[in-house]
Structures are given as structure tokens and as C-alpha cells.
Design brief:
The protein is α/β, with parallel strands linked by helices and 575 residues long. It contains 20 helices and 17 strands. It has a 5-stranded mixed β-sheet with strand order 2-1-5-3-4, sandwiched between helices. The chain has a 4-stranded parallel β-sheet with strand order 11-10-13-14, with helices on both faces. A 4-stranded mixed β-sheet has the order 12-17-16-15. Helix 9 packs across helix 11 and helix 9 (268-288) crosses helix 15. The model has no long low-confidence stretch (mean pLDDT 97). It binds 2 iron/2 sulfur/5 carbonyl/2 water inorganic cluster. Residues 230-232, 268, 272, 299-300, 323-325, 353-355, 358, 417-418, 503-504, 507 line the site of 2 iron/2 sulfur/5 carbonyl/2 water inorganic cluster (HC1).
């Protein structure tokens, strides 16, 4: 360890730590704006400056390494004045219509201005950049008038996701973040993952909002409006209401949706179980009949778009299964519509997702089993939280309620879909059972595919066969894995890929976590624990045990992989 003094106090921190990290150990939070651990370590915004005894000028604590005997001062008048001036300069070219900004209340810039007492935000006002909104993408808006050029979005796009469709255009005062050749984001090969929104400190990036359209549908007496909630929503939503990261709010979430006025409140977990029935069948069929391997999961629409753009020769490896979101809408507007005697054209299918790519997915081709879109509106968890506020629900004091049946019934295998490795584990549970036929002895937990690592590999003995599997989350990791498959270096039978690092628990539609927390907490692991705990507490842990899924096959689809199941639950891809 290295010994130093911070504000006169003795501090000891591991060698290689930055001043920012060492201060944190001493319970001092140095403010940051541009810094994202391991993603954007550029020391550019100068908010985190501190004084170091003997140094000629203030130093950026996020990138400055500690050394033995160093004396650091984090809150001298000189430091505080410098931070305040930096904020005043940022504000001089910032759209300050904060009252109704989508980030008002959780904007990192706003919080710093309050903390540092910036009450003269117009001090340096002069010429301002005026930018048109970029609304070309299906899922999001860029408002460069609120951009502070921190580069978090460009770093996460190029480093974490390996895509790099945004970067700095122009130079000096005209510098702005956008795509090459002034293209709109929708014209690029952006995959709609929304990780840029998740890390943006201000209101410069936000999802396209469908709240009012959903409220209008609910108010229309002619419409039957049902909603499904993705596995990972219950693990993230509570944060928007001040609950600790890793709180399960399933019951209150259901109660809120019912009070908002949805006719039925259902669970995407139901169709995650359904997905497993189809995908395990597809996997065994490919293994036994010489189909294209490895089979790769298809639930994450950001990953699907990435595969189509960047690995078009591997689209045949993709499972033909629609995602659980889309399967849900497809079954609701066919089977359930028939059961209730409702015209599917009068149904409005809404999903609550931790994802922004789901907004894009619902408009893909071949996603209209009943001749109308399987899903009409997809709201992110952030939109859902705003909707709850808008209709005046006191979320924290709502009772815990249960989903409606039958499309609210699910097993533990379904809820873990929201964590990286969960789809693989769920599929293995049912594939092993199908092969061995011995439900009671089938293994339930496949710990080798759990955890937040970007790439996981394992080999399982199933009915005398070695099954090689791999799991990747985050698209840089996906690329690394697929390059190994293409070169022949790795040989897998089954691969799970999720577009966001850690899976949907860390999806681009989850509540934003400020960098001050994100840099020092593994939000992926805390949220994933909610899902694994929920799985462990469920008496039913394998998708084939889901009675509602069995009923849908018995009454409507026939068997998994049937012709009818293919018509309704499967899809196609573009090269
Ligand atoms: Fe996901 Fe999925 S797990 S993709 O992360 O397969 O979004 O939560 O709903 O569709 O079930 C997201 C989550 C979600 C689908 C399922």
C-alpha cells in the first residue's frame, strides 16, 4: 500500500490507485463529470481537480496516481473556485431550460452546480452553439444543446460496445458530438443499445417517449390495453424511487400498472419460459439433425442488429425464435385474443423494458403474428418511472400485488433471463431434461455461466455428449468471442449473447446511476442478485414446468417447434 495525506489525514491505498480512489477510501467524494472507470479516463473536464503539495498547478484527481508521502488537498478555496469556474464556463454554452428537462432532479451537472453554489449561471454568457435535435434514430434523441462534451457516450460506444458511431465533430468552440459526415444517428449502424443514454450525465441523450400515447390508449374505451414487464425491470425500477440498488419491486410495480389503468398486467417471464421451450427444441434439432451450430440466442435486439450489421455471415447461427417481448405480444394477440373473443386490432400491446433497442425491435419486419404488430409501445424503466410520477402514484406506499393469469405465470428459469448467462442456464435446464427425461435429477444451477465477466465458457456433459457453451455480454466481448468462432479457435454448440454488459439488468433503459456510484459499485451484480434470488425462491425453476405454457401448447400451438409455433413465435433476419 501507499501512504499519503489527504486534507491532513493519513490515508493508505493500494499502489496504482488514483487520488480520486484514495480519497474515496477516506470517505471523501471528489466530484467528477467526464470520468467513467475503465471507460473514459481522460481527465478532461477538470471538475475533479485537487491541490497536491509541490505540484505547479491543480491536478485532475481521476487520472493522477498517488505516491508515497504525497499531500493532497481536496477542498481548498483555490480548488472550489476552480471547480465553480469550470461549471460557469460549461453553463455559458448550455441550454439551461432545466425545469422540465428529462433529467431535472437527477442531472449530474445540476447537482454539482447546487453543491458548488453556482448561482450566477449566466456569468460568462456569450455566443452559444445552437443545435437541431437528432431524432433520426428509432429509439432516442440527441440534444447537443445540453451536451457538455464529457465524451462518456462516445467512450462507451467505442470501448464497451466496440461500435463507435459517435465522436467529436469540428474543433474548438464548434466541437459537437455526432456521427461521421453529419449523418443522423438513424443513418448509421448504431444498434440502439442505449448505453450512451445510461452514462450521459445531463439531458443531452434520452429515449423517445411513448408515455402520452400509452395514456391515450388506456383512456380509449374501445381498446383493450395490456402490459408485460421484462425480467430485469423489477430489479431496476426501485432505484428511480430512491430504493437501494438491488431491491426487488415486483409487487409494487404490478400494483402501479394496475392503477395506471392497464386492463391486464402480465409478465414477460411467461414468454421467456415459452422461448425456452422453442429454443431448447431448436437447439436439440440442430444438434441431432446437423443444423447450423453454434446456435446463438436471439432475445437481445441490440445484439441482433449488431449481428446483422457486423457479422452478417453468422445470421444463420441465430435462433429463429422471436425475443420474449415479441413472443408475448404474438401469443396475446392470437391465442389470448381468441380465448377472450377480442379483435386483435383493438388490442394495444405495451411492454416495460430495461432496454431502448426494444423500441426498434417492435418495428422490425416479420413481427406481426396476428396481422397487427405484436407489440405497439415499449417503455423504458425510466419512462415507466416518469409515468408513475405523472399519474401521481405514491410508488413506495403501494401494496404488493400479483400478475394477472394466465400470462403472468412463470418459473425461476425465466426471471434469470435478465442477467448475463441466464438464458443459457434456463435453456440448459430444459435441454438436459428433454434429453434425459428425468426431471427430478436434472441439474438446476449451472454456476459456470453465472457472474458478470464479459465472456464465460463451460462444457457440460449432457446425455453422454460434451456440450460446449459460451456466454458474452457487451458487444466488444461479443466480437471477441465471434472472431474466435470464425477463426476456428473455439468450438461451441450454443452461445448466449446479450448486447449490454451484464445483460438486461444493465440495459440502456434502466434508471441512470450517477458516475459517483457507478464508478465504485458493480450495479450489474447487485441487480442480478435480485433475479437469482427470485429464481431460488420459486418452487418451479424449469420452463417446461410452467402450467400456463403447457396450456398454450395443448390448447393452441400443438408442440414446441410445430408449424403453428413457427408461424407465430419465430422470425427472420436480414443479411
Ligand atoms: Fe431482457 Fe428478454 S431478458 S432481452 O434482457 O430475453 O430488455 O429483462 O425482456 O425480450 O424475457 C430486456 C430483460 C427481456 C426479452 C426476456
Amino acid at each position: 500500500n501507499i501512504n499519503l495525506k489527504i486534507n491532513g489525514m493519513d490515508v493508505s491505498a493500494p499502489a496504482g490507485s488514483t487520488i480520486l480512489e484514495a480519497a474515496r477510501l477516506a470517505h471523501i467524494e471528489i466530484p467528477t463529470l467526464c470520468y467513467l472507470k475503465e471507460i473514459n479516463e481522460i481527465g478532461a473536464c477538470r471538475i475533479c481537480v485537487v491541490e497536491v503539495k509541490g505540484a505547479r498547478s491543480l491536478v485532475a484527481s481521476c487520472v493522477y496516481p498517488i505516491n508515497e508521502g504525497m499531500e493532497v488537498f481536496t477542498n481548498t478555496p483555490k480548488v472550489l473556485k476552480s471547480r465553480k469556474k469550470t461549471l460557469q464556463l460549461i453553463l455559458s454554452n448550455h441550454d439551461r431550460r432545466c425545469l422540465s428537462c428529462v433529467r431535472s432532479g437527477d442531472c449530474e451537472l445540476q447537482k454539482l452546480c447546487k453543491e458548488l453554489g453556482v448561482d450566477d449561471e449566466a456569468l460568462y454568457d456569450g455566443e452559444k452553439g445552437l443545435y437541431e435535435l437528432d431524432e433520426t434514430a428509432a429509439h432516442m434523441v440527441r440534444d447537443n444543446n445540453k451536451c457538455i462534451l464529457c465524451r462518456r457516450c462516445t467512450a462507451v460506444c467505442s470501448m464497451t460496445q466496440g461500435i463507435g458511431v459517435i465522436g467529436a465533430n469540428e474543433r474548438g468552440f464548434k466541437t459537437n458530438i455526432g456521427s461521421a459526415f453529419e449523418m443522423g444517428l438513424g443513418e448509421t449502424s448504431c444498434v440502439s443499445c442505449g448505453q450512451c443514454i445510461a452514462v450521459c450525465p445531463t439531458g443531452a441523450l434520452y429515449e423517445k417517449d411513448s408515455i402520452d400515447a400509452v395514456l391515450e390508449a388506456i383512456a380509449d374505451p374501445e381498446k383493450f390495453v395490456f402490459v408485460q414487464t421484462a425480467p430485469a425491470v423489477r430489479a431496476g425500477l426501485g432505484e428511480a424511487f430512491g430504493l437501494p440498488i438491488g431491491t426487488n419491486v415486483e409487487g409494487k410495480m404490478v400494483a402501479a400498472l394496475r392503477r395506471i389503468g392497464f386492463d391486464k398486467v402480465f409478465d414477460t417471464n411467461f414468454s421467456a419460459d415459452l422461448t425456452i421451450m422453442e429454443e431448447a427444441t431448436e437447439f436439440l434439432d440442430r444438434v441431432q439433425n446437423g443444423g447450423v451450430l453454434p446456435l446463438i440466442t436471439s432475445c437481445s435486439p441490440g445484439w441482433i442488429k449488431y449481428c446483422e450489421h457486423y457479422f452478417p455471415d453468422m445470421t444463420e447461427n441465430l435462433s429463429s425464435c422471436k425475443s420474449p417481448q415479441q413472443m408475448f405480444g404474438a401469443i396475446a394477440k392470437t391465442y389470448y385474443a381468441e380465448k377472450l373473443g377480442i379483435d386483435p386490432a383493438k388490442m394495444v400491446s405495451v411492454s416495460i423494458m430495461p432496454c431502448t433497442a426494444k423500441k426498434f425491435e417492435l418495428g422490425r419486419d416479420d413481427q406481426s403474428a396476428a396481422g397487427v404488430p405484436d407489440v405497439d409501445y415499449s417503455l423504458t424503466v425510466r419512462e415507466f418511472a416518469r409515468l408513475i410520477d405523472k399519474v401521481g402514484l405514491k410508488f413506495l406506499s403501494l401494496p404488493d400485488e400479483q400478475y394477472d393469469n394466465p400470462l403472468g405465470i412463470s418459473t425461476g428459469a425465466a426471471v434469470i433471463f435478465g442477467a448475463t448467462g441466464g438464458v443459457m442456464e434456463a435453456a440448459l435446464r430444459t435441454a438436459v431434461w428433454k434429453l434425459t427425461g428425468e426431471n427430478s435429477d436434472s441439474p438446476i444451477e449451472f454456476n459456470e455461466v453465472r457472474g458478470v465477466q464479459g465472456i464465460k465458457e463451460a462444457t457440460f456433459q449432457v446425455a453422454g455428449m460434451d456440450v460446449n457453451v459460451a456466454v458474452a455480454s457487451g458487444l466488444s466481448n461479443a466480437r471477441e468471442l465471434l472472431e474466435k468462432v470464425k477463426s476456428g479457435e473455439a468450438n461451441y454448440h450454443f452461445i448466449e449473447i446479450m448486447g449490454c454488459p451484464g445483460g438486461c439488468v444493465n440495459g440502456g433503459g434502466q434508471p441512470q446511476v450517477p458516475a459517483s456510484v457507478r464508478n465504485f459499485t458493480d450495479i450489474r451484480a447487485l441487480r442480478a442478485k435480485v433475479l437469482y434470488d427470485s429464481d431460488a425462491a420459486n418452487p418451479l425453476r424449469m420452463s417446461h414446468e410452467n402450467e400456463a405454457v403447457k396450456m398454450v401448447y395443448d390448447e393452441f400451438l400443438g408442440a414446441p417447434g410445430s408449424h403453428k409455433a413457427h408461424d407465430i413465435l419465430h422470425t427472420t433476419y436480414v443479411k
